[in-house]
Amino acid sequence: LDECRASLAVHPRKLRELSALRASSSPGGRFLPAFCDALTPLFEVLRRSPASDRVARFAAAFASSSASAAADGTGFLEGFLRFLLVASAAAHRPARFRSCQIISEIIMQLPDDAEVSDEIWDEVIDAMKIRVQDKIPAIRVFSVRALSRFAIDEEDGGIIDIFLETLEKEQNAEVRKTIILSLPPSSATLESIIESTIDTSESVRRAAYSVLSTKFPLQSLSIKQRTTLLHRGLSDRSTSVKNECLRMLKEEWLVKHCGGDVITLLRFLDVETYELVGESVMGVLLKDGSVRVQDGQTIRQYFTANTEDAEQVSSIKLMEAEVALYWKVMCMHLQAEAQVKGSEAATTTGTEAAVYASEASDKNDLLDGVLPSTVAEFVDLVKAHLSAGPNYHFASRQLLLLGGMLDFSDSMNRKVASSFLYELLNRPLEHEVDEDGNQIAIGDGVSLGGDLQWAKAVSELAKKVHASIGEFEMVIATVVEELARPCRERTADFMQWMHCLAVTGLLLENTSTLRSLEGTAIRPSEVLQSLLLPAAKQKHVDVQRAALRCLCLFGLLENKPSTELVKQLRLSFINGPDLVSAMASKALIDLVSWHGPQELDQAIGTEPSDANYEKTQFAPVDISDLNDDDLNVGVLSILFSGFHKDDWEFSPEGDNHDNVPTILGEGFAKILLLSENYPSISADLHPVILAQLVRLYFLEESKELGRSITHISPLFFSVISHTP
């Protein structure tokens, strides 16, 4: 044993010598007592050291070797295990630690054909279950390792239950990591392992991804679980965790379960629902070089020519959602690489610059070979998918984003694209008809087609096609003017109102100043007076909400908020239905953040001296009984009174962001965080706001509120950490 302390290299020879000595001893002799006596000093060492660990490993290797475990009638292994079990229950900490260490090593090294009685194993399991609760973390680690081999084959689930219970309350990261590595794959352990991917310890998170990679096939995980794991792992702050997640994605999911086909992998991720995750997966695989354009792969392969007729007619094969996402991300990646190489070529000289320029040229040539050959083909491709119905809406949007990579310098290309954009902007909102024959708009009615991403794709293409100064505003304003005619004539139904407001919002979102709308088909004053304010007074709730959103965008573009605009937002917040009040509160918070509360109050004639800027409390306001003509109450007091209204309605299936208290809580938290930007708000009001946020955060009267308050948790804790 002394010689084994010095080096692991002598262990094989010493194992043979000790085995020969044991074989020469008579059955029932003194070998076991002598061996235990010689090993006893190891249990007295207070400090763990490499030398003592080598002796422990030697003892475990000897006990678990095939010669030691053979049924030769001496019962050495069982006797030695009982000796260790006695030490595992000792009050002396080093004795418990060494016994658990050696027991775990024996169990991990023991051959499957070792003949050990069930009775001794029951004693070992019972003793290690007790030691899992030991106060020393290192002892808990080895006891978990000792039980791990039994957890795989057990039927009653007792060990797994102990592991899961311990994992929930365990404070030591090394113990949690060992439990994660010891859990067998099953539906009972999967959720706990997935939860460990957000553990505070980097090593635990890495271990969780390692276990998920090796023990759980891709098909055994739900789509939600797959996307959650990738979202967490690929955005983890630790490089080692990211690498482990990437290894799982590449080596296990992509290569092993999908045969290296990235399209098949994207099908497992439901990219229509989890688009951002799909884009992240494509991005990291492209950056790593695991995915590249194969020879013959191109978007043009979806155009098939029919030459049977006298005139050649092209037909288009529709893309699946995964294929469309693949090509969008691939083309964006090629374009970004070409731009990077081009920039590097411009900032270097000589041979290095020539190399970069050549690489940029290759990337551009590859991109040109992948994209549709003409703008007309691009338009036909998108139109074909739009005409295919809602099932291809996602693919249509992915393909629409490719338009930003095409060349519109030619006047004919611009003409074709401009005509296509006109069709898109005049495309009516999608809707359904209920049992009573009423039309129901699909989407939130706030953005083009009810899809924020679709509206963004249309605006990006429009800005690319109409890139000259003022041209974008001129073209979109012309469409708004056409759509606004039935609205101004009061002959429009709610769907026409929604469509007009959607395009108006698109215009206001992408305009830097109202001056750019002067001289267009519809002037800013007409937009406000003839369209937005009348829309805010419509009976249909969705029309009101869309109008209030546009009023907010309009107010953000004004140098000073107009009187009619502020009055309407104020009135909608006080008297509107809950969904309308929610949109009005968003608008008022945004305008307060942009212009300041004093500007909004002055717009409606409230004098600063009558407002709350120099007071220590907000004016008590009951918005349920507030007179519409009472303009002496400041906007902050009105918004703050929303916290005290107790009859807000909350839909468990609705969006948390539509809850008025949540919106107000987020808004006032931002006001506190950016208080230096609002000198007109008295510092004496800051404790009042903070106290209300604390009450809101800990409110327990409503389960719906409890759900919605989680949205402002990060802001709440930011306020706490930044408040003196």
Automatic annotation (TrEMBL):
GO BP terms in the entry? cell division; mitotic chromosome condensation
What are the GO cellular component annotations?
condensed chromosome; condensin complex
- Which keywords describe this protein according to UniProt? Cell cycle, Cell division, Chromosome, DNA condensation, Mitosis
Q: Would you say which domain of life the source belongs to?
A: Eukaryota
Checking InterPro entries in the record gives: ARM-like, ARM-type_fold, CND3, Cnd3_C
Q: Which residues form the Nuclear condensin complex subunit 3 C-terminal domain?
A: 499-706
Could you tell me where this protein is found in the cell? Chromosome
Q: What is its main location?
A: nucleus
Q: Which family does it belong to?
A: Belongs to the CND3 (condensin subunit 3) family.
The name this protein goes by in its record: Nuclear condensin complex subunit 3 C-terminal domain-containing protein
Q: Which organism is it from?
A: Aegilops tauschii subsp. strangulata
